[in-house]
Write a structure and sequence with these properties.
The complex is a heterodimer. Chain A is built from ten helices and no strands. By secondary structure, chain A is an all-alpha fold. Chain B is 39% helix and 29% strand. Chain B is built from eleven helices and 14 strands. Classes of the chains: A mainly alpha, B alpha/beta. The structure holds adenosine-5'-triphosphate and magnesium ion.
Chain lengths: 244, 319
């Protein structure tokens, strides 16, 4: 009960202080909106829009979540207010979940911005929304925890941003959203399967267009595995480096 | 009853030893002062006690809880005021306090009640809705202390609570700490103001180079110092030559020239003033003031750290 009060307060504070602040809201809305517009304008037919939707959704999640972590973790670490959290009687795992839940929710909301836009232009019937929501959730969790890992590895906000881009752009390229994995040069293909987004993208493609080629169960399993791995390494890093 | 027991507490950063196997205990109801110069290891010690730094060696027990193994459990009993305010700059005073209360699992209603009570107590009621970043240094420190006690901790740790703020704010804070202690909170504070330690603390540990060179009750420390008698004489003319004459006449005393017209006489026994005054007279000096100086903790500190720290270094060298 006590832990729950702390968890809720940390989450609400981050929401108020970071996620609901105009610059971040606009980042969350405008960014997916810009992606959507850019891709939708380029596509010639409405069928294209639907085939591009999974990619736009995944990118919105990836960029939304990882950028937020740089602020909520790295910034607070710089200003030393993160120490206050470490000094509170809250289990470190719970604390990190509290610090990341906001970003996960933010990512999920970001993912549906392009869906809302697309719904005005194309027919979205025949989509398995249950699977879509599941994959959006797990992509949001995985990329939030990736953002967490980056945030606890660096010490400056700008480093976190730069470092994130170092991961984000290759991920977009390799995950098979815009260029199917099979069409990538053979040497790059194994790399694709080391990227969590590849699995998330495949689930989205299956659910929206039936174009995925991996087993749904396997993809979900891989996303959970990546999430766990990122989270465990992150908390271990904090224990080792921040409690020095 | 000891609330905090520290044995052989050691912190090493690579080859460098910041805290070198210190031992002490804090009794329930104590105001325990950790007094030492810059770099002595005060912050490092507090960080180890509160869970921000790992203990390299040694044990810490707080109210019977093994802090090395179960820090999260021990933290429930602690209030912590760091040397630099680490509240949230964008949030106002009230929000900051509310949030800190929530971190310790306090219910909303109770948090709100306690937050207002504390804002009143630290004189920040008017500033409650101002963002923390707009606070002055002294206001920041006061709010940080309020944030440290909102959950009614059994023991409050403060790292240099009055460093870098004005006299008035410092006085306010000292008063606050005294009241807090009277209402039952044990206090552990670090400081490099000797006078502050003397005024606030009932037990003091002197820490130099990561080692405790002296630890005792403030009373006992002062008693030792005050066994020495000091009389200060002020005359109307230069007394530099007089020191030699006094030295010859009364070799049992020690002397120290404070300035051209002031000299201090030190003795373990009571000082007989008349013969000294006669020496002044014989040398045609007008004595216009003679006063007894009461040694303060400062004298004790200088004496002890000066001597003992040197001795310790020699011992360290022998090893
Ligand atoms: N993370 C660290 N790595 C290496 N050395 C450190 C680290 N933190 C502190 N030290 C060293 O340990 C010693 C004790 O530092 P500490 O901050 O505990 O001193 P302090 O008594 O609090 O001093 P001050 O009055 O300046 O606050 C110093 O020599 C400092 O340089
Ligand atoms: Mg310090």
């Amino acid at each position: 009960m006590k832990s729950w009060i702390a968890f809720k307060s940390i989450l609400m504070k981050d929401m108020r202080n970071y996620y609901l602040k105009p610059p971040n809201i606009s980042w969350g809305i405008i960014f997916p909106f810009a992606w959507t517009l850019m891709f939708f304008l380029r596509s010639q037919t409405t069928m294209d829009i639907r085939s591009i939707l999974p990619g736009v959704m995944a990118m919105s999640i990836l960029f939304g979540t990882t950028s937020m972590l740089a602020v909520t973790i790295t910034f607070e670490r710089r200003s030393r207010s993160f120490e206050r959290l470490l000094l509170a009687p809250i289990d470190l795992n719970l604390l990190m979940l509290a610090k990341t839940t906001g970003a996960i929710l933010f990512g999920i909301i970001n993912a549906f911005v392009p869906v809302v836009f697309a719904s005005f232009i194309v027919d979205l019937t025949g989509i398995n929304w249950f699977v879509v929501f599941g994959s959006v959730f797990f992509i949001a969790v995985t990329s939030t925890f990736l953002g967490l890992l980056i945030a606890v590895t660096v010490s400056e906000v700008f480093e976190a941003q730069t470092f994130s881009n170092f991961f984000r752009f290759p991920m977009i390229f390799l995950c098979g959203l815009f260029i199917p994995v099979q069409k990538l040069p053979a040497i790059l293909q194994p790399l694709s399967y080391l990227i969590p987004l590849t699995y998330g993208a495949d689930i989205l493609k299956t659910a929206i267009n039936g174009e995925g080629h991996l087993l749904l169960g396997l993809s979900f399993f891989m996303l959970v595995m990546f999430s766990l791995m990122f989270f465990i390494i992150s908390t271990k890093n904090i224990k080792e480096k921040w409690i020095y | 009853m000891n609330i905090l027991e520290v044995k052989n507490l050691t912190k090493r950063y690579g080859d460098f030893t910041a805290v070198a196997g210190i031992n002490f205990a804090v009794k329930k109801g104590d105001v325990f002062g950790f007094l030492g110069p810059n770099g002595a290891g005060k912050t490092t010690t507090i960080n180890m006690l509160t869970g921000l730094a790992k203990v390299t060696e040694g044990t810490v027990f707080l109210a019977g809880i093994d802090c090395v193994k179960h820090m999260k459990k021990a933290q429930e009993l602690m209030g912590i005021v760091p040397d630099e305010s680490n509240l949230y700059p964008e949030m106002n005073g009230l929000e900051n306090l509310d949030f800190c209360g929530a971190l310790y699992g306090m219910e909303k209603k109770e948090r709100n009640r306690k937050a207002w009570e504390l804002l009143e107590q630290v004189g920040l009621k008017e500033a409650a809705k101002k963002p923390f970043k707009a606070y002055s240094k002294g206001m920041k420190r006061r709010l940080t202390i309020a944030a440290g006690i909102i959950h009614n901790p059994d023991i409050l740790f403060l790292d240099e609570p009055t460093t870098g703020i004005d006299v008035e704010s410092a006085r306010h804070i000292r008063k606050l700490l005294i009241d807090l202690n009277k209402s039952g909170t044990t206090i552990f504070l670090t400081t490099h103001y000797i006078e502050e330690a003397e005024r606030l603390c009932n037990r003091i540990a002197f820490i130099v180079d990561g080692k405790i060179v002296k630890i005792d009750s403030t009373e006992k420390l002062l008693e030792t110092a005050q066994r020495e008698k000091i009389v200060q004489f002020s005359v109307d003319n230069c007394i530099l030559e007089l020191q030699g004459i006094l030295q010859q006449t009364f070799p049992e005393y020690k002397y120290k020239v404070i300035d051209e017209q002031t000299i201090r006489v030190y003795s373990a026994e009571a000082i007989d003033l008349i013969p000294i005054i006669e020496v002044f007279k014989d040398n045609s000096l007008t004595l216009y003031e003679a006063k007894v100086i009461k040694p303060s903790l400062e004298e004790v500190f200088v004496k002890i750290t000066g001597i003992e720290a040197k001795k310790m270094k020699n011992e360290g060298g022998k090893k």
